Amino acid sequence: MEIIQVVGIGIIATVLAILLKQQKPEMAIHISIVTGLIIFLFVVTKLKYVVDFLSSLADRINIDFIYFSTILKVIGIAYIAEFGAQVSRDAGEEAIASKIELAGKILIMVLAIPIMTALIDLIVKIMS
Amino acid sequence: MDFLKNWAVNIVILTVFVALLEIILPSSTMKKYIRVIIGFLIIIVIINPFIKLFDNYIKIEKEVFANLTKGGEFDKKTKSSFISENNERILKLYKQNLKRSIEETLRKRTKYITEVIEIDIIENRKKENYGYIREIKLLVKEKNNEPYVDKNDNHIKVNQIDEVKISIGDSKKSNKKADEVKLNSILNVLTDSYSIPKEKIYIYMSDE
């Protein structure tokens, strides 16, 4: 029952953070960051199973693997950027969080550009 | 009819795939961007049969690859790491083959089999003598008289037994001399076939 462990860690960390917030606000931030990391790592190992299943599904489609790996990369970037942004936001650094999100968006766009240009080229070719 | 079936199956699987992807998407501003890309994927899957209809020579995978190489310029670092990895692999393979070939020649042309071979070669790619043997260390053992079985041949060949010599006198000294002679034979074979200078070869006898 991993969910109980995850929720347990979360609740304990939350209570600790609230208690510490009055005396030492900086410690509360540390706790929230570490808790976030623990839960993130906990779930990332499980994510492999899902990814394996998705890749087996993608194998069945008669479409090149490149799309699939692109999408997985995009999701990975999204998750990591999201995580980083949330941690910075928790620490009160709104500016850094938005920069992290910006970087994530740009990297996602870079990955998407090959598919996009290929699609446009194809449509132009079909039309001409 | 077959391609219609394929098409339908593709669309169905893609729909399931996208539905699953939606579950694991992070629920934030990033979602929009991922949805756009998934949309492209769906367009490609739906458009695919039409491309074949209009032109046999368009391959969407090829297009994506072409565009990938254009965008690949910023990946120089991975490229160089790939090259160095490749070089390492080549070096390893080269050493392995060298070892195997030395083992084989010694087994065929001398009375010894090698137990351990250590080869030190010049690994700097930029040097002119790249790949030359700098030093070679051998641990050899006298071939047992146990019959050598050819893998392709079921008959057992019995090696000829050496004449047994009994000598009286300083046995230690003669042993040493005999050892030297033996080692010389190995040295000669190695210098003959690989043109390695004699002073770069170190041979150790196994006690067994």
Automatic annotation (TrEMBL), chain A:
Record's keyword annotation contains Signal: no
Record's keyword terms, sorted: Membrane, Transmembrane, Transmembrane helix
Keyword Transmembrane among record annotations: yes
Transmembrane domains' residue ranges: 27-44, 65-86, 106-124
InterPro entries according to UniProt: Spore_III_AC/AD, Spore_III_AD
Annotated NCBIfam families: spore_III_AD
Protein name per Swiss-Prot or TrEMBL: Stage III sporulation protein AD
Source organism of this protein record: Caldisalinibacter kiritimatiensis
